[in-house]
């Protein structure tokens, strides 16, 4: 069929409203989320009304220009942000001087109203996603692929992005922040288009993009821990919040599994891997060779677990093998497949971050040369990169899906390093970025998660329909709503983190305890309501009652200026509810029928001792030659009679800044 036939098929959507089911919350998690966010909405409404009639107008600021304390920049590490920018100084502070710093939540009316306001917004967006999945106005539509429409929309988007080009002459460093956000932005756009249109012919490209994201996780987190040397509980909790706060509530409200949103487990695991690696023997992180031996040991451990048959299943034996949502062949197989495709990605990102000062020094030294000699050196690297890319495309990239998957984990670094060098080979190129793509890159986590429910539906298997019979108009309207809400969720998540996970350890600990007991209480009440049938009318009544009780407690806290007056009865009540929840969950697990085993998997897992050994060799070359381009920079310098910058010269200035803090 031609593009016109596919367009007609795509638009053939029933005009009749979707047949609704009974208004019952079948999942305890859905009831839990409704109780929690609904109660927050009641408290916010009562506080606002009281303030209005009391002529005390409260300003509930938005998080459109939020910053947290640490050097007044966001340490956004999700989907692999380049947190090497955490070392920015006065220029960055001036740039952010007008941004509002969100303080930790306090026992004041303004602070608590702001918290409740934004919890209400967050909950409203979550329940919009629930309505899109469970109570749509029009029936969900099937996906239909048209190559012409797919590439037409892609080209239009990229052409418009070119009109948003901006210069950044103050920061032309290798992989500067705007450039990495831009990189994430265009990859995310194609990743989303691939899902919306089910464009299976670009699958191999999408696999490379996902590896680039995981690579950024290794690069960004290694950079942060190398520069900031912060292994504290607060930093750890802040990162877990950023990565998993939204996905936790999506799992609750939709009754899904963590593995369904597989990007989050990937980034969480590889963040933990970098954290533990840098924390163990942290005193040697800035020595020339000990840190290199440490990351090489990590590479050997990864090789042993993922590339030696039988070891992975032994290490991850605790993962379920039964079929579940997001894991047709069981969580163990799904995690083996997903993590196996990228088991070296974060590792290569760590190596690039470790060698970053030398790579930057090499670029700087070559660009100080006369133009002809500078480009003679760069052309040598570009020629070798071009040959490597051509061989990779011909031998690997064009393979069928399953065969490509078996080779991807061992060859992804070829296009990745090629892109980095080409994108950064000129100071002029490094000084420009496409702002539209940069903005897209900042909300990659939210757009990835929310695509499952408010852009696509049925966990990304079908399309949301708002304008039936007009697929392109529907695509436009749904996309605008989806992008707006994703951006709002990003602002809310970062802002709530600043309020509820402050940098002060004592305050963060108290807030953590309060959050845990509060959530346990609400979950216990939700469990009881679901046992009683989960009727939405009953849930609404209980939500209003909880909101009123919450308002009374909040009012007392505000009037007293402290939580001391409500702490003892609150702890006793929540402790009792938490105990009931634990007993109930234990009985539920005990009485539950054993799960049926999952069917046999169909292959496609990257596991090869031979290929893994080759990757370890390449990795060792990168680490110990201190050349991110596998020795090619050294080769071009030798052929061009250029002296490579020494380790001491490249790292001394950085180390002085780090240890002077």
Summarize the model shown.
The chain is mostly helical and 661 residues long.
Structure characterization notes:
- The radius of gyration is 26 Å and the shape is globular.
- By secondary structure, the protein is an all-alpha fold.
- Residues 1-20, 60-98 and 589-594 have low confidence and may be disordered.
- The termini are far apart.
- The strands form 3 sheets. Strands 1-2 form a two-stranded parallel ribbon. The chain has a two-stranded antiparallel sheet with strand order 3-4.
- The longest helix is centred in the C-terminal third of the chain and has 30 residues, at 471-500.
- β1 (66-67), α3 and β2 (100-101) form a beta-alpha-beta unit.
- α2 (28-53) crosses α4 and α14 (371-397) packs antiparallel against α16 (413-424).
- It contains 26 helices and 6 strands.
- It has helices spanning 3-11, 28-53, 90-95, 109-134, 147-162, 177-197, 203-228, 233-254, 263-279, 290-307, 311-315, 331-341, 345-367, 371-397, 401-411, 413-424, 427-430, 435-441, 444-454, 471-500, 505-531, 536-560, 564-591, 609-625, 632-639, 647-659, and strands at 66-67, 100-101, 165-167, 432-434, 456-457, 462-463.
């Amino acid at each position: 069929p031609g593009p016109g036939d596919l367009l007609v098929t795509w638009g053939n959507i029933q005009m009749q409203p979707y047949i609704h089911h009974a208004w019952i919350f079948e999942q305890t998690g859905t009831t839990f989320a409704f109780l929690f966010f609904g109660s927050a909405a009641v408290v916010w409404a009562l506080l606002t009304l009281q303030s209005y009639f009391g002529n005390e107008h409260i300003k509930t600021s938005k998080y459109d220009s939020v910053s947290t304390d640490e050097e007044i920049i966001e340490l956004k590490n999700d989907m692999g942000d380049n947190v090497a920018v955490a070392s920015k100084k006065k220029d960055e502070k001036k740039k952010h001087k007008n941004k509002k710093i969100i303080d930790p939540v306090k026992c004041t009316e303004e602070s608590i109203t702001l918290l409740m306001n934004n919890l209400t917004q967050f909950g409203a967006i979550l329940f919009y996603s629930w309505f899109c999945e469970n109570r749509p106005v029009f029936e969900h539509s099937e996906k239909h692929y048209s190559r012409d429409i797919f590439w037409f929309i892609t080209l239009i988007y990229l052409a418009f992005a070119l009109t948003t080009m901006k210069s950044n002459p103050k920061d032309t460093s290798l992989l500067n922040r705007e450039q990495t956000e831009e990189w994430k932005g265009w990859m995310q756009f194609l990743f989303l288009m691939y899902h919306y249109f089910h464009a299976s012919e670009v699958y191999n490209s999408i696999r490379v993009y996902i590896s680039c994201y995981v690579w950024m996780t290794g690069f960004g987190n290694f950079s942060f821990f190398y520069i900031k040397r912060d292994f504290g509980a607060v930093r750890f909790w802040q990162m877990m919040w950023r990565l998993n706060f939204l996905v936790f509530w999506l799992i609750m409200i939709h009754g899904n599994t963590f593995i369904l949103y597989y990007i989050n487990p990937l980034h969480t695991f590889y963040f933990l891997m970098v954290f533990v690696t840098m924390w163990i023997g942290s005193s040697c992180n800035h020595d020339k060779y000990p840190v290199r031996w440490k990351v090489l040991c990590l590479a050997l451990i990864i090789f042993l677990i993922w590339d030696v048959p039988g070891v992975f299943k032994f290490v991850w034996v605790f993962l379920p093998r039964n079929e579940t949502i997001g894991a047709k062949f069981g969580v163990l197989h799904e995690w083996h497949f997903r993590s196996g495709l990228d088991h070296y990605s974060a590792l290569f990102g760590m190596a690039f971050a470790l060698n970053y000062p030398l790579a930057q020094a090499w670029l700087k030294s070559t660009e100080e040369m006369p133009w002809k000699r500078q480009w003679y050196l760069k052309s040598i690297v570009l020629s070798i990169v071009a040959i490597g890319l051509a061989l990779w495309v011909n031998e690997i990239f064009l393979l069928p899906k399953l065969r490509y998957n078996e080779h991807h984990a061992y060859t992804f670094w070829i296009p990745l390093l090629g892109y980095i060098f080409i994108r950064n080979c000129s100071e002029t190129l490094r000084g420009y970025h496409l702002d539209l793509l940069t903005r897209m890159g900042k909300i990659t986590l939210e757009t990835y998660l929310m695509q499952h429910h408010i852009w696509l539906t049925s966990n990304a298997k079908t399309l949301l329909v708002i304008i039936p019979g007009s697929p392109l108009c529907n695509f436009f309207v749904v996309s605008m709503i989806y992008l707006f809400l994703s951006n709002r969720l990003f602002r809310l998540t970062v802002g709530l983190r600043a309020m509820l996970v402050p940098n002060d350890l004592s305050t963060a600990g108290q807030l953590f305890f309060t959050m845990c007991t509060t959530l346990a209480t609400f979950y216990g009440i939700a469990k009881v309501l679901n046992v009683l049938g989960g009727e939405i009318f009953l849930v609404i009544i209980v939500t209003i009652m909880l909101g009123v009780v919450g308002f009374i407690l909040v009012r007392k806290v505000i009037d007293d200026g402290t939580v001391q007056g409500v702490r003892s009865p609150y702890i006793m009540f929540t402790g009792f509810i938490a105990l009931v929840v634990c007993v109930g969950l234990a009985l539920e697990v005990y009485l539950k029928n054993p799960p049926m085993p999952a069917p046999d998997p169909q292959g496609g897992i990257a596991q090869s001792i031979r290929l893994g050994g080759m990757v370890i060799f390449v990795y060792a070359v990168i680490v110990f030659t201190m050349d991110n381009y596998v020795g090619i920079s050294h080769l071009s310098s030798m052929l061009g009679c250029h002296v490579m910058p020494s380790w001491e010269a490249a790292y001394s200035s950085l180390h002085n800044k780090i240890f002077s803090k």
